[in-house]
Design a protein that fits this description.
about 75% helix; mainly alpha; about 110 residues; elongated; 4 helices; about 0% strand
């Protein structure tokens, strides 16, 4: 991550994202998009919304833009965007294309 120190919460979230991606891509390989969709829904509602987003919002709103803790949160959100975009792409290709557009590029 280019000299960026991630917080423990962000490291945990990225670990959960890797596990989610492994499950979702495995479901697509088995030609079971409904299982991938259910896994995506569970990941977004349980892991992200109930935990990561609730615990990260103060870093995003209150920390200075150059703060390492805020940069860690922003970088993690960028990775999550790309993981979720790739997870929905087989079912919603237009949504994935729009979600990966230049409007959502993470700054360094």
């Amino acid at each position: 991550m280019h000299s960026l120190t991630l917080t423990p919460l962000d490291r945990l979230t990225l670990h959960l994202a890797a596990s989610f991606w492994k499950d979702a891509s495995s479901s697509y390989e088995r030609r079971n998009p409904s299982a991938a969709f259910l896994r995506t829904l569970a990941f977004v509602s349980s892991d992200l919304s109930a935990a990561h987003f609730a615990l990260s919002k103060d870093r995003l709103y209150c920390e200075a833009e150059a703060s390492p803790r805020r940069k860690s949160a922003v970088r993690t959100l960028g990775v999550l965007l790309h993981v979720l975009k790739d997870a929905v792409a087989p079912v919603c290709p237009i949504l994935a294309q729009v979600g990966g557009g230049p409007f959502f590029v993470c700054r360094k």
